[in-house]
Amino acid sequence: MKKLVIINGPNLNLLGTREPQVYGNMSFERYLEILRKEYPMVKIDYLQTNMEGEIVNALQEYGFQDTGIVLNAAAYSHTSIAILDAIRAIQAPVVEVHISNIYSRDEFRHHSVLSAACVGVIIGFGLLSYRLAIEALLDEYDTTNR
Ligand code: DQA
């Protein structure tokens, strides 16, 4: 797999300024530059949206290509059956990511309705969570078995 897409959900466009004590000081655009330099052989598409249906559309668009999907659906992770159904409907592997440790936060964040449909979940390592998700998706052995 040489193509990936990172899909970020609501309020993640504000990374860098949003609750920096929880999400850090770096914008996602800056982190994406770093990621693209670290993985020059991989095409990394990126999209951020605050709209639930646009996440569903993106999953459907990328989900039938030879593409690994890194998904941080943000608050929709805790609520969205539409996104869960989309992950179940597609063929591409989806790794769920959270920047913060959702288990050390409000109780309503402790459950993600998406996790069961994802190939794996990476939680709580800050922006490094995305890199760890990429590593998992690029791993030949694991992707063969998904
Ligand atoms: C988040 C955790 C969610 O609970 C929250 O709603 C977010 C970001 C994370 O990356 O830590 O917006 O997905």
Question: What would your notes on this structure say?
Answer:
With 146 residues, the protein is of the alpha/beta class. The chain has one domain (3-71, 82-100, 121-145): 3-Layer(aba) Sandwich (Rossmann fold), CATH 3.40.50. It is 35% helix and 18% strand. The chain has helices at 20-23, 28-38, 52-62, 81-89, 128-138, 140-144, and strands at residues 3-8, 43-48, 68-72, 94-98, 120-123. Strands 2-1-3-4-5 form a 5-stranded parallel β-sheet, with helices on both faces. β3, α4 and β4 form a beta-alpha-beta unit. α3 (52-62) packs parallel to α4. The two termini are 12 Å apart. The model has no long low-confidence stretch (mean pLDDT 95).
The helix/strand order is: EHHEHEHEEHH
CATH fold assignment: Rossmann fold
- Total helical segments: 6
| Percentage of residues in DSSP E strands | 15-25%
Distinct ligand kinds: 1,3,4-trihydroxy-5-OXO-cyclohexanecarboxylic acid
Mean pLDDT across all amino acids: 95
Which second-level CATH architecture applies? Answer: 3-Layer(aba) Sandwich
Strand arrangement within the widest β-sheet reads 2-1-3-4-5
**Largest sheet, strands/sense/barrel:** 5 strands, parallel
Helix-strand category: alpha/beta
Overall body shape: globular
> What is the number of independent domains?
1
Low-confidence stretches: none
CATH domain class: Alpha Beta
Helix content bin: 25-40%
